[in-house]
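subagent[fold] <- orchestrator: predict structure for attached chain, return tokens only, no commentary.
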Amino acid sequence: MSRAWGGTLPLGRLLEDAIHFAEDGAAVTETLAENTRAKLDELKDAPGFTGNFFIDGAFPEKGARFRQPRIAETLRRLAEAGLDDFYRGELARAIAADLERAGSPLRLADLERHRALRVTPLSLEVAGHRVFNMPPPTQGLASLMVLGIYERLGIDSPETFEYVHGLVEASKRAFRVRDRHIGDPAYMNVEPADFLSPDGLAEMAADIDMAAALPWPDAAQKGDTVWLGAIDGEGRAVSFIQSIYWEFGSGTVLDETGITWQNRGTSFSLDPAHHNCLKPHRRPFHTIQPALARLGDGRVMPYGTMGGEGQPQTQAMVFSRHVLHGQELQRAVTAPRWLLGRTWGAETANLRIENRFDPAIIDGLRDAGHDLEVVGAFDEVMGHAGALVHHPDGLIEGAADPRGDGQAAGF
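subagent[fold] -> orchestrator:
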């Protein structure tokens, strides 16, 4: 049953700014410029890709004005006809026709049968704080498991070898559960919350050797995702994430609507015996999973990041640094990070770590057996994190990642 929050703005007003920037243009960011150049060879033949992302027939250079007039018209259509038009109206028919011309098996009936689901989040108490994340088919379970395992390691400071090693090893245990079990919940034969039991988390924590790394890697995914958080003047908090999966989704830009189509179906396995195999109407496993916590002192903290395989790891770093170890919010987001696994199209699945860590920590990780690669000071491979904290007295803190194009803003 839905709850009436009140105070809603009309859809036309909510989409007004997006329509303006799509029509009038916005400056090309460094991320867009670099990724267009890096992915051109594999996407140049995708229908509509160069026509949409090139500017006057050339690569989009940083700072150039990037316009998307077809997106502006699509948003105007939604403002006039309502959001349901995307799935069951004239816009849906245009989308379906363009997809069929592009060679997609998706049809109008697939759009029409879509319904958004209201789900109950998974949750876990961590050191007196209640942390929430999304249920399957997302990897939200893994994020909660990482924190639950880490809490039981008894680590005192985030500026130590034990902190990095402990979180990396907790991530490995959580990822193996995720990769073995998580998919469309309609097809799962296990209860996700069972993996969050105190005994189960304690057993995984006890399995961690604090002096040696568990052999790795396991397979990972690449992706393109945006996390957003918002808190209004009455304290309502939202943790939101969306994704088209790979850097440009499928690379296909629909001719009539200007929509860049996602490729989440790539997450399916074509092995009929796989727990995440392709079937009609089945939902694929996916990585996107916004987080939110009710802290023990009454604060509320929406937080998250883009970055596929890195999302549970970065969430654990931000939460543990700020909440468990008392670091200031922006410092927790800016602090040096690491990434275990393959993401952003990389071929390796080792442990990449930013060079701002104390050399003694880096040496200690190598000595413990981690397959380590030291990267730049603020490497984009680590994802773009963000967090907000609402205090009981109404104060709102915000932090944005210097690795990306986002910002914390109030008005």
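orchestrator: received. Logging for downstream: Residues 223 and 245 are 5 Å apart (CA to CA). The domain at 122-224+284-400 is CATH 3.60.20.40 (Glutamine Phosphoribosylpyrophosphate, subunit 1, domain 1).
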